[in-house]
Amino acid sequence: MLALLTAGASAAAAIVYLAHKGNVRANWFAICQQFDSFCERISGSLIGSFAAMVLLIMLIFLSAFALARHH
């Protein structure tokens, strides 16, 4: 689950970067000037994805410590 969440967060980071900066070589223009609400929402979901990654890592460590303490 952590690998899937990390892959999703990485893909979202790439989309946020393209939305903010664009890519001149691929002829993709930055769209944040035209669609401010899209960029705000996708940036918020990126923060949520990375927060979920941190919470999942903490949950994994807590579970590992709980299992190690019982054995």
TrEMBL record:
<keyword id="KW-1133">Transmembrane helix</keyword>
<dbReference type="GO" id="GO:0071555">
    <property type="term" value="P:cell wall organization"/>
</dbReference>
<dbReference type="InterPro" id="IPR044173">
    <property type="entry name" value="CASPL"/>
</dbReference>
<dbReference type="GO" id="GO:0005886">
    <property type="term" value="C:plasma membrane"/>
</dbReference>
<feature type="transmembrane region" description="Helical">
    <location>
        <begin position="42"/>
        <end position="68"/>
    </location>
</feature>
<keyword id="KW-0812">Transmembrane</keyword>
<keyword id="KW-0472">Membrane</keyword>
<keyword id="KW-0961">Cell wall biogenesis/degradation</keyword>
<dbReference type="InterPro" id="IPR006702">
    <property type="entry name" value="CASP_dom"/>
</dbReference>
<dbReference type="InterPro" id="IPR006459">
    <property type="entry name" value="CASP/CASPL"/>
</dbReference>
<protein>
    <recommendedName>
        <fullName>CASP-like protein</fullName>
    </recommendedName>
</protein>
<comment type="function">
    <text>Regulates membrane-cell wall junctions and localized cell wall deposition. Required for establishment of the Casparian strip membrane domain (CSD) and the subsequent formation of Casparian strips, a cell wall modification of the root endodermis that determines an apoplastic barrier between the intraorganismal apoplasm and the extraorganismal apoplasm and prevents lateral diffusion.</text>
</comment>
<comment type="similarity">
    <text>Belongs to the Casparian strip membrane proteins (CASP) family.</text>
</comment>
<feature type="domain" description="Casparian strip membrane protein">
    <location>
        <begin position="1"/>
        <end position="55"/>
    </location>
</feature>
<dbReference type="Pfam" id="PF04535">
    <property type="entry name" value="CASP_dom"/>
</dbReference>
<keyword id="KW-1003">Cell membrane</keyword>
<comment type="subunit">
    <text>Homodimer and heterodimers.</text>
</comment>
